[in-house]
Design brief:
single chain, about 240 residues, mainly beta, Immunoglobulin-like, 2 domains, six-stranded mixed sheet, about 10% helix
Length: about 240
């Protein structure tokens, strides 16, 4: 009788120990909260396709001025990154901000493009605002060169169906609204130098061959003979 009782007690102890071990490994920690993705900011100043004349000219370098970039707050956002591209040099700088403005010193008499990226702590998701172009006012400038053209068709880096011609299309803008024409350079060289025509319209036909990769750029001219040259655009023909 005593042996039976001892055996029963031993079995009971083993079961309790096993159950206790499982209980100690139970993880009741709640999952981390889901962080909402930030939304896109809306640009306020400088406005798109305008001349910026509110910068503070540097006391040590009259070729530069400090411009305060402004945008509307976006939802679920902890910080912002201002991306600013010097169009003439095709160089980009990035400035971090914790509020809805950032003062940046930039070149005068120079075209720029800018946009803002919204960021949130706890997530890698971001949101980008629309882009805006402007000229930072320069000394003695009465008429500004047009902004460089941007490719519309074929899209940059795209592949198009086999054909014998393609209608090159682009878009551009000018603060003075006095663009008078465009000259297009086109070819299979990565730095196209062959002029295929001039036009007052923002499109021009070009001859193409199947299997080739083409490169093209547009020079825009205004009534004061100011010019701007686009970047080189590329597309491939099937």
């Amino acid at each position: 009788m005593k042996i039976t009782t001892r055996v029963f007690s031993a079995i009971t102890l083993l079961l309790l120990t096993a159950c206790g071990g499982n209980s100690s490994n139970t993880d009741d920690t709640p999952p981390p909260p889901v962080v909402a993705a930030p939304s896109a900011a809306t640009l306020v100043f400088p406005e798109d396709n305008t001349e910026c004349n509110e910068g503070v000219i540097s006391e040590t370098d009259e070729t530069k001025s400090a411009v305060t970039f402004q945008w509307n707050a976006s939802e679920n956002t902890d910080s912002y990154e201002v991306n600013l591209r010097n169009i003439n040099m095709n160089t980009t700088t990035k400035t971090n901000a914790s509020s809805e403005d950032a003062t940046i010193t930039i070149d005068r008499g120079t075209p720029y493009e800018w946009f803002v990226i919204s960021k949130a702590n706890g997530t890698n998701e971001t949101a980008s605002s629309a882009k805006a172009k402007f000229y930072n006012q320069g000394p003695g400038i009465e008429n500004y060169a047009p902004f460089p053209a941007e490719a519309v068709n074929p899209a940059r880096g795209s592949t198009i169906a086999a054909a014998t011609t393609v209608n090159l299309q682009w878009t551009t803008s000018d603060i003075d609204d006095d663009i008078v024409g465009y000259t297009v350079f086109f070819g299979t060289e990565t730095d196209p130098t062959t002029e295929i025509g001039s036009t007052e319209d923002s499109n021009l036909d070009a001859s193409i061959t199947s299997g080739a990769t083409y490169y093209w750029r547009v020079v825009t001219t205004d009534s004061q003979n100011n010019t701007s040259t686009s970047e080189v655009f590329e597309f491939r023909v099937e």
